[in-house]
Amino acid sequence: MKKLMALFITTLLLTNVLIVTSCSEQKNIYIYNDLPIAREYEMTEVSLSSLGIKKETEFIILDEKGKEVPHQILYSSKKVIFPVSIAANDSVIYTIKKGIPTEISTKTYGRQVRERKDDFAWENDRIAFRMYGPALAKENPSNGVDVWLKRTENLIVNKFYKNELENGKSYHIDHGEGLDCYKVGNTLGAGGIAPYVDSVLWVGNHYNRFKIIEEGPLRVSFTLEYDTLTVRRQNLRQSITISLDAGKQLNKAIVKYDGQISDMQLAAGIFLHDKIGVTKSSIEKGYIAYAEDAVSDAKVPSGRNYVGVFLPKGISAIKTQDKHLLAIAPHNMEREFVYYFGAGWSKWGFPTDKDWFAYMEKQALILQNPLRVVVK
Questions:
Q1: Fewest CB atoms less than 10 Å from the CB: which of 25, 36, 288, 372?
Q2: Cβ atoms 176, 150 nearer than 8 A
């Protein structure tokens, strides 16, 4: 009888230990939206250390209905990101526990395109961009941003380049998935950035080196380094780290400068191609936006093309200069400068100019008020 009682107690203790161990392997992530607007497919970051997870541990994330949510581990920052949708002034709970995650489709991508004059191109399921490299410097020296409009969730960068270079099928004409109809030249293009000193916009040159930091499936990020930026006859070095999340139109950019300019200002800008484009800007809300006709190389109208820039630390002045719409802000060269830039298309999510301007205003509010995250 004593042996049976001892066995029963031992079994009970072991059961309790298993229960405690199981519970300790599961954590809840409480996410709060303090804004009176809904947040849709917003990438949320949580540090692995707060979750008690090592990089090599496999885990899954579940929403309140028990449905698995896609995620990506950011090895550069030891964080995990996953998309969150949440109603206005509401909160949601996500559960994280050990498990083998379901394979998900890749929604972001970027690479250097050596076969096309060292372009660096990147995209997500909404939009695509590129910056010009050393091989293009003689004909198009610029640190401006080029846009590829797209109307498919599929990744198109490799396909467009292959069709152009190998099959003679120009990506300057819409064949059903999108096109490149944006002209950059020696400008800032669709949201590039440059020093603004002595009331002069110092547009830069091509990038010299690149480094890919994160390769998707939900976020692509990379750094471009520029060696030949000249301001007041001084050579500056610039680096820009760009990240683009799935489902978003705007890139996040972190800019650094090395040099000695005491009264440095920066201007993030949009090149104004024509006189019939429409602008909307707000110093108070920190953004500038632009809408214009999109026309292919074959002179075929292709809807409306949209560009926007947002400065989270505020804009000191908005100017129209050198055919640019500029958002200007002071900059301490010992610190990083963060801003956002992006684009959209009337044939893929933004039927009217009003829709794009509303998107920019909403994103400005969202980026100033990140979701609150608590791990328990």
A1: 36
A2: no
Residues 6+ apart with CB under 8 A from 29: 46, 51, 61, 93, 94, 95, 96, 373, 374, 375
3-state secondary structure 319-360: EEECCEEEEEEECCCCCCEEEEEEEEECCCCCCCHHHHHHHH
Which residues contact residue 6 at a Cβ distance below 8 angstroms, ignoring those fewer than 6 apart?
none
Cα 320 to chain centroid distance, Å, stands at 26
For residues 147 and 356, the answer to whether their CB atoms sit within 8 Å is: no
Q: Is the dihedral of CA 322, 328, 330, 333 positive or negative?
A: negative
Q: Which residues, 6 or more positions from 316, have their beta carbon under 8 angstroms from its beta carbon?
A: 265, 283, 328, 329, 330
Predicted confidence (pLDDT) per residue in 156-191, tens digit: 999 999 999 999 999 999 999 999 999 999 999 999
Sequential DSSP letters for 6-26: HHHHHHHHHHHHHHHHHHHTE
CA distance 142 to 227: 13
List, for residues 25-39, the tens digit of each pLDDT value: 689 999 999 999 999
Supply 109's token pair. 């991508």
The two beta strands, 26-32 and 287-295, are: unpaired
**Whole-prediction pTM value?**
0.92
Instruction: Report yes or no: 88 and 36 within 8 Å, Cβ to Cβ.
Output: yes
DSSP letters spanning 190-229: EEEEEEEETTEE-------EEEEEEE-SSEEEEEEEEEEE
User: Terminal CA-to-CA distance of the chain, rounded, Å?
Assistant: 43
What are the CA-CA distances from residue 250 to residues 15, 128, 308, 321 (Å)?
51, 10, 8, 23
